[in-house]
Design goal:
The protein is an all-beta fold and about 80 residues long. It has strands spanning about 10-15, 20-25, 50, 55-60.
Length: about 80
């Protein structure tokens, strides 16, 4: 079951560090947005786990309907 909701009507600005592993919340129920806190267990969605290749600022999707997970692709403007 894909029980996705909108957490934010725009992207989350996130600083990531090279070599660190992150878990982006796909269900939008985490209280630690945009990161996963385990709230997905009742939503049927698992987080997207990724390792940062370099230290940088990312703009992570808050609307959870991006075509470029976990990055914002502007789709939120259509929600």
């Amino acid at each position: 079951m894909d029980d996705r909701v909108v957490a934010n009507q725009g992207p989350y600005k996130a600083e990531v560090e090279a070599g660190q592993t992150y878990a982006w919340c796909r269900c939008a129920r985490s209280t630690d947005q945009p990161w996963c806190d385990g709230a997905h267990k009742s939503a049927g969605l698992k987080p997207l786990v990724f390792k940062a290749e370099k230290s940088e600022t990312l703009y992570l999707c808050g609307g959870r309907h991006t075509g470029d997970e976990p990055n914002c692709d502007g789709f939120h403007s259509k929600l």
